[in-house]
Fold this protein.
Amino acid sequence: MNHRTLMLAALVLPALASADVVWRGDFETGDRSQWSKTQMVNPDRLQVVESPVRSGKYALRALVKQGDDPINASGNRNELLYHSREAVGSEYYYRWSTMFAPDYPSAKTWQLFAQWHHYGCCGSPPIQFIVNGEEMILAAVGQVVWKAPLVRGMWNDFIFHVKWSPDAREGFIELYRNGKLEAPKTFVATMFPNDFNYIKLGLYRNSTIAQDGVVFHDDFVMATTLEDVLASGSTPSSQPGGEGPALPSTLPEPGATPAPRPGEQAAVEELDPTGGPSGGCSAGPSGLLAVLGLLPLMPLLRRRRR
């Protein structure tokens, strides 16, 4: 590489690494093609629909019936997967909207509607967005960092800010919902050692739940700054049950509640063992990565599979 090429690269690469939308999974293609993979028993379980939508023309309708087990694993599921491969030290903002159907089942057990899973074969995912009974819960490596009442028939607009790290002194999360900072910046481990994460969206739940479950997802965007996820939204649409809050043009400043300094214990609580998925192990995308990721965790493996 000559001197001129090096100078050009020095100018271009910082621009490429600057604030930008990294990926969209907003279904505006009219299909599931933005996503890497599906885990579904039938195409009718993950349908791209024109109503209800949060923005644009299309959204995803995820349906799970008892017995749906497309990957011969624990629980019942129909999910989309995107190979986002978040690495240690990376920091992103994720924006999406979720609506639970008016008849969404109330069950005092785990139902995951979004997750960031590790590539290792076994254990609960590092990041879980859970419904348990009449609560929505966000858990990071087994630590509960946010709870809110379950709302049916209305859109929940999430902005999820994460620094990815297995070190609780370095990793952190923030969560905005409907334009409000509901989980201020909290230092907590957000991934497992020697592993990467990837995004899963849909519905994954305890196999004991008999009632059909339907959840809608829309407008998923992954970006490097808050401004990018805010600027990337389409015009909000109405939906059953009345219109949800307008998508905000600005959000409150993060850190409304002082966050723990590195070295301090984050103000979180342990996730109840019944609050997340359990079971054995299923085949993962990378056998070697699975082994490397699990070696440091062997003493801790009360963890369960995805």
The CA atoms of residues 166 and 192 lie 5 Å apart. The chain is about 10% helix and 35% strand. The chain has a mean pLDDT of 80. The helical segments are 3-17, 226-231, 287-294.
